[in-house]
UniProtKB/TrEMBL annotation, chain A:
Keywords: Cell membrane, Membrane, Transmembrane, Transmembrane helix, Transport. It is a multi-pass membrane protein. Belongs to the binding-protein-dependent transport system permease family. It comes from the Bacteria. This is ABC transporter permease. Residues 95-292 form the ABC transmembrane type-1 domain.
From TrEMBL, chain B:
Residues 1-28 form the signal peptide. Its main location: periplasm. Keywords: Signal. The keyword Lipid biosynthesis does not apply. This is ABC transporter substrate-binding protein. It is found in: Periplasm. Belongs to the bacterial solute-binding protein 5 family. It holds the Pfam family SBP_bac_5. Residues 73-428 form the Solute-binding protein family domain.
């Protein structure tokens, strides 16, 4: 198992390099110039040259990439061109907000997804099943941006239950968590439902019924336990999306997380910040996938056996 | 089973409901203010190094000179000033008894230490004309100039020339304005969470407010929290639900809503923004000045003001905002709606009306590409402009670009016509957008004209005094308008929305924008 983890970690190195090239290239190839945001009205062309040289933007792209990559490998994410502060500082301030939202959304989607999936499976093809599956599907297909505003209208404006926005209080976290979490809830509920239905048809379940065990006990203690294996796999794969799944939702709810920072920096073409944000989001997905694979291997003896 | 699931759901629901918090401004002596969306993300309260400064900055740092709504200059930390006849020196008498938040005195040495701190920063251009600062006595300084700078008072009134405490500035280095911000303003910084909020607490010693405000003493609110909300809808809903007390800039889409709400009040001041249509003078058919003039006269500014902006704001007929003295130009140079003349000019230029309402010449229809940015307000405005152009036989094909990328599109020089806006309150914006050495962007019109360059040089570098500068820029402005590379459209107002049950504000504002002059008069509602 340790050998497997080590091999997977080694594989991350070329993936990381490829991702860094893609991120750097895309950012520098899209139209836009951060110097436009720095030049004050009245400043002359020579001022543009001075600022361009100051940030090394006059160097060939390959050289700029190498300077950036070598900095990143040494833990230096550079200095924001427009924001004029170390990128690491900006990320350090934004990351806790995104992590809090992402983790709570994951917990929300896990809890409600499993509960709803179990209820739907136990009421297969009945009204409750169709209502739950239809409801979560509807919720998950709504764009986060729109759903967020809808929730604000209902729960903040009409009912006055939660603050419209902010990140100071726990109550301000509820609506963003529901907005982000609904997408995951639908996925978890569907996987749980299907896995429960499949597990319920296995021979050992029939045997338990034949032995006279109560159906509720069979479903919760035996069927659900087997059904959770694919659910845990799905959840572990979603770990990587904790940071990246809430970019627009953060803007709607005025949460100063990575998403807000990314959008602001994209609008300003603040290359070092955009690159760092995207790299962190990509790393989160890569590590999340690795963790998911390891958990899956740890849970399923067949995979462990196949890995040797 | 069902009971246990119901119990679980109920418990979760109850726990979520229990997380409801107090409204943020439950304390009578605290006001919660939302910054304008274009001020969101300011990374530091550092007027020397910062490239973006929000309104809270003006509450921390005072300036030597204050500006009123008519762009006149008034004393603030400088009690009086005198410009040498040849423009090569400025002498400032400083206010006495002023102290910084850290107790350090504000005096002539402060200015001597402060000006050199700009060297090497992005804002160095503000003091580039100053050769050196001489201390004449404890409260008098003289700026010895490299060359005359009639724009000096404008620069000194800029937010970027709020005066920080030089010793703290040097000692804190990159942390200045992040962990600590030391000025002489009516509030001092208590905390700053970038992208989230800034909390300011009252400077109890403050007695040197600008005479432009009713209150020159300590502020009436003990604490101010400036929140950052980028999304317009969210900001408006916060105001409506009482989550915040003031919106510094009500989004234009929500101005009618704020007017309608009983507990909300809208205070408007003339802004620094101007919306306009620009034509590329190097692209057919706009190489013909008659076509440019016809297109300019086809724009019905009043109709746009009434129908798109509900009559809030001003119809624009010059390229400069109306508060500037250089906008006071001769009537014949103002560009106003005149469809008859527009049609006559197009006829004269050989463009005959076709059966489909689009003019033709040599078998070619009068079709132009009309560029704009993707924001909803611009799209809506451009569609109306398109319809107004069509009314005189010009067919505009709208192309929208992401607002972050459109500048690079302009640099290609391929644009024919565009609807856009700028935010600036100095006449040098004419130089910025029509200077021959900035073709593509910012000179989107690709306007190159020897006479304009002559007038531009006189305005930019040939003026020795403020009065001379105004005269030179007025002449330059008039000449550019006479060549019709542009058609002014609309001048928005800044709409400050506030909750009348929480705060009170004077009915009129004597400031060029929302700054400490306005907010120091804000008091808890009775």
């Amino acid at each position: 198992m340790l050998g497997y983890i080590f091999r997977r970690l080694l594989l991350l190195v070329p993936v990381f390099l490829a991702v860094s090239v893609v991120i750097f290239s895309i950012i520098h190839l899209i139209p836009g110039d951060p110097i436009d945001n720095l030049l004050k009205i009245g400043s002359g062309p020579e001022q543009r040259e001075i600022i361009t040289a100051r940030y090394g933007l006059d160097k060939p792209l390959v050289v700029q990439y190498w300077i950036w990559l070598s900095g990143v490998l040494q833990g230096d994410l550079g200095t924001a061109i427009v924001a004029r502060r170390p990128v690491a500082d900006l990320i350090a301030q934004a990351l806790p907000h995104s992590l809090t939202l992402g983790l709570c959304a994951l917990a929300f989607s896990t809890t409600f997804g499993i509960v709803l999936g179990v209820i739907a499976a136990l009421n297969r093809d009945k009204f409750a099943d169709q209502a739950i599956m239809g409801g979560v599907l509807l919720g998950s297909t709504m764009p986060g941006f729109w759903l967020g505003l809808l929730l604000i209208l209902v729960f903040s404006v009409w009912l006055g239950m939660f603050p419209v926005s902010g990140a100071r209080t726990w109550s301000a976290l509820v609506l963003p968590v529901v907005t982000v979490g609904l997408g995951g809830t639908a996925l978890v509920a569907r996987v749980t439902r299907v896995a429960m239905i499949e597990a319920a048809q296995r021979d050992f379940v029939m045997l338990l019924h034949a032995k006279g065990m109560r159906p509720l006990r069979i479903n919760l203690r035996h069927v659900l336990r087997h059904a959770l294996i694919p659910v845990v796999t799905i959840l572990s794969l979603r770990i990587g999306w904790i940071l990246g799944g809430a970019v627009t939702v953060e803007v709607v709810f005025a949460r100063p997380g990575l998403g807000t920072l990314l959008i602001k920096s994209l609008n300003q073409h603040d290359y070092p910040v955009v690159q760092a944000c995207l790299l962190i989001l990509a790393m989160a997905v890569m590590l999340g996938t690795l963790i998911g694979d390891v958990i899956q291997a740890a849970m399923d003896p067949r995979i462990r056996a196949a890995l040797g | 089973m069902n009971r246990s699931i119901r119990g679980c759901l109920l418990a979760t629901g109850v726990s979520l409901a229990a997380m409801v918090s107090m409204a943020p401004s439950v304390f009578a002596q605290e006001a919660v203010i939302v910054l304008a969306s274009n001020e969101v993300g300011q990374p530091m309260y550092n007027p020397i190094k910062g490239t973006l400064l929000n309104t809270a900055n003006s509450m921390i740092y005072d300036r030597l000179v204050a500006q009123d709504a008519e762009r006149g200059y008034h004393p603030h930390l400088a009690e009086s000033w005198e410009e040498a006849e040849d423009g090569m020196a400025w002498t400032f008498k400083l206010k006495q008894g002023v102290t910084f938040h850290n107790g350090e005195p504000f005096n002539a040495q402060t200015i001597v230490d402060w000006i050199p701190l700009f060297e090497g920063s992005e804002n160095a251009y503000l003091v580039a004309a100053i050769e050196k600062v001489e201390k004449l006595d404890e409260h008098t300084v003289r700026f010895v100039m490299k060359h005359p700078d009639p724009n000096m008072l404008y620069n000194l009134a800029s937010a970027f020339m709020g005066v920080p405490e030089p010793k703290a500035f040097v000692a804190l280095g990159d942390d200045f304005g992040v962990t600590e911000a030391v000025g002489t303003g009516p509030y001092r910084m208590e905390s700053f969470d970038i992208g989230l909020e800034t909390v300011l607490v009252r400077n109890e010693d403050y007695t040197w407010g600008t005479p432009l405000a009713e209150n020159t003493g300590p502020a009436k609110f003990e604490r101010l929290t400036f929140r950052e909300i980028a999304e317009d809808s969210t900001a408006y809903l916060e105001l409506r639900t009482g989550g915040v007390d003031v919106l510094l800039s009500v989004p234009s889409d929500f101005l009618p809503e704020v007017k309608q709400e009983d507990d909300l009040k809208l205070l408007t001041i003339q802004g620094r923004e101007l919306t306009y249509m620009v034509m590329n003078v190097t692209k057919e058919p706009f190489t013909d000045i008659n076509v440019r003039q016809a297109a300019a006269l086809a724009i019905n500014q009043q109709e746009i003001l009434d129908n798109i902006y509900n009559g809030v704001g001003l119809a624009a007929d010059t390229f400069l905002i109306s508060a500037l003295p250089e906008a006071k130009i001769a009537d014949e140079h103002r560009i106003s709606y005149d469809p008859d003349k527009a049609n006559a000019l197009l006829e004269e230029a050989g463009w005959k009306m076709g059966p489909d309402g689009v003019r033709m010449k040599d078998g070619k229809p009068l079709e132009v590409a009309l560029w704009t940015q993707s924001d909803s307000t611009f799209r809506r405005l451009t569609e109306v402009v398109q319809a107004q152009l069509k009314a005189v036989g010009i067919s505009g094909q709208i192309s929208t670009f992401d607002s972050a990328m459109i500048r690079d599109q302009y640099k290609s020089g391929e644009q024919q016509m565009a609807v856009r806006s700028y935010i600036w309150d100095n006449a040098d914006i004419v130089d910025w957008f029509f200077g021959a050495d900035r073709l593509g962007y910012p000179n989107i019109s690709m306007f190159v004209d020897p006479k304009a360059e002559e007038l531009r040089a006189a305005a930019m570098t040939g003026s020795k005094s403020s009065a001379e500068r105004v005269a030179n820029f007025t002449a330059y402005h008039e000449y550019v308008l006479s060549q019709f590379p542009v058609s002014p459209i609309y001048q928005p107002v800044i709409g400050l929305g506030y909750n009348t049950t929480r705060v009170s504000l004077p009915d009129s504002i004597n400031a060029p924008d929302i700054n400490s002059t306005v907010l120091i008069d804000m008091a808890p509602a009775e």
